[in-house]
Amino acid sequence: MGRPEASDRQNGTVNTSPVTALELGVEPVASADDAELVAAIADLVNLVYDDAEAGLWFAGARRTGPQEIAELIRRRELVTARSGGRVVGTVRVQQLDDRLAEFGMLTADPQLRGVGIGRELVAFAERRARELGCTEMQLELLVPNTWSHPSKVFLRDWYARIGYRHVRTTRLDELYPELAPLLATACDLVISRKDLEEFDR
Predict the structure, then answer these.
(1) What's 183's DSSP letter?
(2) Contact at 8 Å (CB) between 56 and 23?
(3) Fewer beta carbons under 10 A from the terminal one: N or C of the chain?
(4) Does 188 fall in a domain?
């Protein structure tokens, strides 16, 4: 269980990358009932964020859990990347309004760094947004506001290189008040957007 369904292949939600031998697709709804797969995806997300956001959260804070992952799958918002049948990356893609989509929960297996999983997932997310009729893509980047986190600096620069432009900065508690008490350091959310039509030209 957990492999993209034939219908997903036919409607263009699955892409095989010849560069990294990755199979990407919107995770089929049936996968939400595969407890082993859902737990493995949650573990991967938490593993990646434990490293990427080290020092931002109090010990024991988790990025996600099986219940949230299953719900994202049921809503067809979770994209997975597989290599050899194993999930090696994820990204969440959600439509915020008629013209705006957002991606988040971008992860890539730490053992496969440098092979382009993140790049392929972002590209797939942007194609998915276009399929939904959206013309802009948004992302939120959590950053400490009194010091520089190396992982966040790298991501900010990488997103800028692929076309994302800062639109506003807000406090985490303004958008996610339930998460603020879990922070070990003061953080802001840096919100960036990319004009998908501009980059189609």
Answers:
(1) B
(2) no
(3) C
(4) yes
Q: Which residues of the chain have pLDDT under 50?
A: 1-20
120-152 b/e (C-beta count within 10 Å ≥ 16 → b): bbbebbbbbbeeeebbbbbbbbbbbeeeebeeb
* 71 occurs within a structural domain: yes
For residue 89, give the CATH number of its domain. Answer: 3.40.630.30
Q: How many domains does the chain have?
A: 1
CA-based nearest residue to 73, from 35, 108, 118: 35
C-beta separation of 144 from 56 below 8 A? yes
**SS3 assignment, position 76:** coil
Q: pLDDT digit string (tens) for 151-186?
A: 999 999 999 999 999 999 999 999 999 989 999 999
Tell whether 1 is covered by a domain. Answer: no
